[in-house]
C-alpha cells in the first residue's frame, strides 16, 4: 500500500475525525430539539385558539357554562352578566334587545352586543336592519355560504323583503348569532392555520440557517 493511500484512510483515534463525528451528533440532536419545540409551539397555538373560541361561544351562545366559568376564574359566587341580571349589575340598562322575525318568533341579542337603554328598547336594532347587515355579510362571502344554503335558483331566499343569494334561507337564530359576533369572517380558522404554518416555516428556516 502506498503512502498516499495510507493518508486517505480514516483514523478512529484522530482527534479531528472524532470532533467531526461529535459535531454531527450534536447537530442531529439540535435538529430534533428544534423540531420538537416547533411542534410544541404549533400545538400550543392551536390549543390556545380553540380554547379562546370555546370561551367566546360560552359567553355568547351557551348559557349553561356559568358554573364552569366561575370555577375556572376562581369566583364561585360571582354573578354572571346575563340578560336577566344586567339591570341588577348595571341599572342604566334594561336587559337585552328583543328581535321578532317574520314568523313572530322572538330572539334576544347577546348581553355583550346590544342592551336596552329604556324599558321599550327604543335604541335596539330592528329585525329589518339586522337582515340588511346580514345580506351584505352573506353577499360578501357568498361563495362560502352557498355551499351550505345552496346556489340561487328561480326561488331565492327572501326574508322580510330582503333578498339573500341562496336557495335556502339561513335561520333567524343563525343570523342573530352572526350579528352577536359582529359577522365574523368564515375563513378565520383557515387564516389561523396559514399563519401557524408561516411561523413554523420561518422557525425552520431560522434553525436551518443557524446550523450553517
Characterization of this structure:
The protein has 2 domains: 15-70 and 190-210; 81-181, no CATH class. It has helices at residues 3-8, 15-60, 66-73, 86-89, 127-140, 142-149, 172-180, 188-210, and strands at 98-100, 106-108, 157-159, 162-164. The chain is built from 8 helices and 4 strands, in the order H-H-H-H-E-E-H-H-E-E-H-H. The chain is elongated and about 80 Å long. The longest helix has 46 residues, at 15-60. Residues 2-10 and 57-77 have low confidence and may be disordered. The strands form 2 sheets. Strands 1-2 form a two-stranded antiparallel ribbon. A two-stranded antiparallel ribbon has the order 3-4.
Sum this structure up briefly.
This protein has 212 residues and is mostly helical. It has helices at 3-8, 15-60, 66-73, 86-89, 127-140, 142-149, 172-180, 188-210, and strands spanning 98-100, 106-108, 157-159, 162-164.
Order of helices and strands: HHHHEEHHEEHH
Mean pLDDT: 76
Question: How would a crystallographer describe the biggest sheet?
Answer: 2 strands, antiparallel
Beta-strand residue fraction: 5-15%
What is the gyration radius calculated from CA atoms?
Answer: 30 Å
The number of domains: 2
Number of helices: 8
Helix and strand composition category: mainly alpha
SSE diagram, text form:
Blueprint lengths: L2 H6 L6 H46 L5 H8 L12 H4 L8 E3 L5 E3 L18 H14 L1 H8 L7 E3 L2 E3 L7 H9 L7 H23 L2
Antiparallel strand pairs: 1-2, 3-4
Amino acid at each position: 500500500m502506498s503512502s498516499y493511500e495510507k493518508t486517505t484512510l480514516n483514523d478512529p483515534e484522530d482527534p479531528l475525525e472524532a470532533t467531526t463525528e461529535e459535531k454531527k451528533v450534536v447537530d442531529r440532536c439540535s435538529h430534533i430539539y428544534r423540531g420538537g419545540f416547533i411542534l410544541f409551539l404549533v400545538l400550543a397555538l392551536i390549543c390556545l385558539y380553540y380554547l379562546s373560541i370555546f370561551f367566546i361561544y360560552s359567553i355568547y351562545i351557551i348559557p349553561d357554562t356559568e358554573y364552569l366559568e366561575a370555577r375556572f376564574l376562581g369566583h364561585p359566587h360571582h354573578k354572571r352578566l346575563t340578560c336577566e341580571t344586567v339591570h341588577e349589575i348595571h341599572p342604566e340598562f334594561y336587559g337585552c334587545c328583543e328581535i321578532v322575525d317574520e314568523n313572530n318568533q322572538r330572539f334576544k341579542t347577546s348581553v355583550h352586543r346590544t342592551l336596552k337603554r329604556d324599558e321599550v328598547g327604543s335604541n335596539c336594532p330592528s329585525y329589518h336592519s339586522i337582515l340588511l347587515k346580514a345580506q351584505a355579510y352573506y353577499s360578501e362571502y357568498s361563495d362560502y355560504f352557498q355551499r351550505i344554503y345552496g346556489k340561487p335558483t328561480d326561488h331565492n331566499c327572501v326574508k322580510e323583503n330582503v333578498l339573500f343569494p341562496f336557495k335556502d334561507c339561513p335561520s333567524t337564530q343563525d343570523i342573530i348569532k352572526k350579528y352577536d359576533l359582529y359577522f365574523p369572517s368564515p375563513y378565520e380558522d383557515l387564516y389561523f392555520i396559514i399563519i401557524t404554518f408561516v411561523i413554523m416555516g420561518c422557525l425552520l428556516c431560522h434553525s436551518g440557517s443557524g446550523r450553517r
